[in-house]
Structure formats: C-alpha cells, structure tokens
Design goal:
Keywords: Disulfide bond, Hydrolase, Integrin, Metal-binding, Metalloprotease, Protease, Zinc. This protein is of the alpha+beta class. Helix content is 19%, strand content 22%. The strands form eleven sheets. It has a six-stranded mixed beta sheet with strand order 1-4-3-5-7-6, sandwiched between helices. The radius of gyration is 24 Å and the shape is globular.
Length: 481
C-alpha cells in the first residue's frame, strides 16, 4: 500500500471569493489500476492528478475548487472486497473511508478508481447529498476509458451526487447535448452543468451542507501546474489551458505574461495585471465579530484574516464573539428550526450529563457512542429547542431528530434536538454553539463552560485599546473612526 501526501502550501485560487467552497479530495486506486500502470506508482499518481485537475476545472464553474490532498494506491492487494455490484462496492468503500482513510488522511470526500466493471453498464456509484458527512461522503468509479477526460467526468458526476444532484431529465436546460449529470455516459466528455444541477446544489448549500467546505486547504499534492492553486515555484496557476481565462497568466508553464505584476489574489486587478492600491477593501467583515481587511499596495494577496477578539460581548449580550461568529442558544435554534423557534427550558439542558441520544455532549464517531456532559457544562452540550417547525438546516437524510417531553408542574416541556453529521472536523450544529452564554461571565467553547476572562486574557490588547477601538485575535487594536 502506498499513500502519497507530498503536499505543499498553497495560496488562494485567482477566482476565489468569500462565497467559494473547497473540496479536499483523496483519490484511491485499486490494485488492478497499479498493475495496469506497469506497477509504476508515479504513473498512478500522475493520472490521479490529471483526473483531479479536470474535476476541479468542471467545478470551478460553480465557484467550487477541488483540491487533491492525497493519492492512495493499493499496491499490495485490494483493501476492500470489490464486487460487480456497484452498490456493494460503494458500501465497502464508504466503510473503508470511515475506518481507515479518514483517521489517517483527513478529507472532505474520497473517490475510488477501480478496474472492476460493474453490472448493467454502471460506471459509477455515490449516495445523494452527504458531501460533508463522516458516514457517506465518497463514490466509486470504473476506469472505463483510456480517455482520461471521460473518467474524470465520471468522478465529477459521482461527486455531484454527493452534492445532492440528481440525474438530468428533459426539463433541465443544458447548453450541450449532454451535461455532467446526464443519466448515462457517452463517448464525449460533457463540460457543463445543467440548470437542474445548479438548483440542486443551491438547495444543498442553503441547508448548510457546505459547512466543511468553507476552509481553503492549507496544502495540496504538488506542485502541479494546472491544478488552479498557486504553489511554490509558480508565479501563477489559472488551471488547465483549455479552461484558463486569466490574461495575466501563461497556463503552459504557470508564469506571468510579459509585463504582468500579478495574476491572482484579491488584491490583484486581473483586468490590468497590476496590484491594487493601498487601502482598497479586499475582505469584508462577515459579522459584528469580524473586521474588514484592506490591500496594502504591495502584495496581490489580502492580509491575514483577523477578527474581533474571542470573548468580546456581542448580539443582545447573551453571547460572546468566537472565531468571527456571534451565536447564542436562541439564534442557533432559529438557524436549525426556523424563525419562530426558541431555546427550550433549562430543565432540558440539565439532563445533558445522561449521555444518551437525546441528552448528551456530542457523538464519538470512532466508538459510535454519545458523550456525557460534565455537570458544570450541561449548557454547552446538546441544544434543545421549542416552537419548532421542520428542520431548516442540514439534510434530513443525514440527521437524527429527537423529541423528549419533561413534566414541570402541570405542563409538559418540549425538548427538541437534532444530531447532524457534518464530518468529524466540525462541531455538530445540533450542539450549543461556541460563544453562547452559559452563566455569569461564562461562555461555551468546545462543549465546555469556561470563564470569559480566561479567553479575553489570551493575546489581550494593552489597556483594552483605551476604550477607543476594537481588539483583534492577534492582540492588535483597530481604532474607531
């Protein structure tokens, strides 16, 4: 078995913006793929990179950037049972991803390339809608053509199912004869998404199924000219030549065209290939707990993203800033269950030390058990809401909704909660959010109720900016205008 992760640091893609999403992808190659490539691991890695580059180019149209963060080669033997039944192979691969791949090689999504031919002409399999989940974010793909673009399109298609896309039908608008989510493959590689695919994607995003995709990868497998990510040794990278529309970058060798000062970054003017002027806004504040950033006139990249110091009081004074966000028990209930939802009675939270499906402090994916809250942390565990409507955040297919009723005097209290699988790297939105108030001068952080002072004292600003500014997470003051 070979696992390649010779990753290098990257900068933001030139087309990226605040709404961009990033898929950290691992491609797994079965043993026959290794054999068919003359047992040459470098050939398998190179082919995987080419597939990922094409998939990335197709998803760039949707403001999604696919970054190859790892290639796995089963060089000794297949590590799962492969079957001509595509569903069985998919189930086996998803189990392998959960048990072996994710712990060793964290990823948002994994795709298997196999030489196995599935029954009934099927060239790929994936489940619909679980892109961010620990349980189901992956697909299996038959290496059905020597034309690499056709195999890459199959991978893009199966990844599309993970994003919640269905197969195209007659009502879908497509600029070509076939689009990427066509129900059957063809001898030519489709290059566009249908109107239906875009609608399905927008719906999934509106349900929060992009939560694990908001962080740009710190490194990718490379350097690779043509993957769309600026890496060491490159002056620019606008992706594959046939998709590059950057007038400042030469896609053949990832160098700047003659006379260009830059070709990427939010402080680069692509229309002139010049660095933008000092003090031009390059990153807006996303909340009251964030600060805007401005170009410095010398770099094409926006300065480091800083934000209001964790522990700063915010909202209606029942929450504290944490990692750019201002979230309370009440606001999180509304996010999950709609505008009329509210936080439930304190009695619901007092039962969180039980550690069962309804009352807990989270879920342990490794041993599949619910975690008990410490007695002092019960307000930072499972979030309990009332006056709820239908679940408005998270796909119900990857959620477990629970309701308990507690008797208080002569009335019944509703404790409605939800467990949403968004992967092991993100806190379940069904838990109390970080920054929520859990007592006098106390706030929730990582399911613990801690003193606000213990957070404010980290990288504290001198004299609290003299009361005439805002302290950021690096301990620097931003003066009031």
């Amino acid at each position: 078995r070979v696992k390649r992760s010779l990753n290098v640091p990257v900068a933001e893609p030139y087309k990226s913006n605040l709404r961009s999403r990033y898929v950290e992808l691992v491609i797994v190659n079965d043993h026959k793929e290794f054999i068919d490539n003359n047992r040459d691991k470098s050939l398998v890695v190179e082919r995987s990179k080419q597939i990922a580059n094409i998939v990335n180019a197709l998803y760039n149209q949707l403001n999604i950037f696919v970054a190859l963060v790892g290639v796995v080669i089963w060089s000794d033997h297949d590590e799962i049972q492969l079957s001509v039944d595509g569903d069985k192979t998919l189930n086996n691969f998803l189990h392998y991803r959960r048990e072996r791949l994710v712990p060793q090689h964290p990823n948002d999504n994994a795709q298997l390339i196999t030489a196995t031919t599935f029954n009934d002409g099927v060239v790929g399999k994936a489940l619909k809608g679980p892109i961010c989940t620990y349980e189901y974010s992956g697909g299996v793909n038959t290496d059905h053509s020597h034309i690499i673009g056709l195999v890459a399109t199959t991978v893009a298609h199966e990844l599309g199912h993970n994003f919640g896309m269905e197969h195209d039908n007659d009502k879908c608008k497509c600029p070509d004869d076939k689009c990427i989510m066509a129900p059957s493959s063809s001898s030519t590689s489709p290059k566009h998404w249908s109107s239906c695919s875009i609608d399905y994607l927008n719906y999934a995003m509106s349900r929060g199924m992009d939560y694990c995709l908001r962080n740009m990868p710190k490194d990718v497998m490379g350097p690779v000219c043509g993957n769309g990510f600026l890496e060491k040794g490159e002056e620019c990278d606008c992706g594959l030549k046939e998709y590059c529309d950057n007038p400042c970058c030469n896609p053949n060798n990832c160098t700047l065209v003659f006379g260009a000062k830059c070709a990427s970054g939010s402080c680069c003017d692509i229309s002139t290939c010049e660095i933008k002027k000092n003090a031009e806004l390059c990153r807006e504040a996303v909340s009251e707990c964030d600060t805007p950033e401005f170009c410095d006139g010398s770099s094409e990249f926006c300065p480091t993203d800083v934000y209001v110091h964790d522990g700063t009081v915010c909202g209606d004074r029942n929450a504290y800033c944490y990692k750019k966000q201002c979230k309370s028990h009440n606001s999180q209930c509304k996010l999950l269950w709609g505008p009329f939802a509210n936080v439930s009675n304190l009695r619901c939270f007092e039962k969180n030390p039980k550690g069962n499906i309804i009352f807990n402090c989270g879920f342990n994916f490794v041993n599949t058990s619910y975690i008990s809250c410490d007695v002092d942390d019960f307000l930072c565990g499972k979030l309990h809401c009332m006056n709820t409507s239908e679940l408005e955040f998270g796909m119900e297919s990857v959620s477990i909704i629970s309701t308990a009723f507690l008797k208080l005097s002569n009335e019944l209290i509703s404790c409605k909660s939800v467990h949403i699988d968004l992967g092991i790297d993100l806190i379940d939105p069904g838990l109390v959010p970080d920054g929520a108030k859990c007592g006098i001068d106390k706030m929730c952080i990582n399911k613990k109720c801690v003193t606000v002072e213990s957070i404010l004292s980290l990288n504290a600003c001198e004299s609290n900016c003299n009361g005439n500014g805002v302290c950021d997470n690096e301990g620097k003051c931003h003066c009031n205008e």
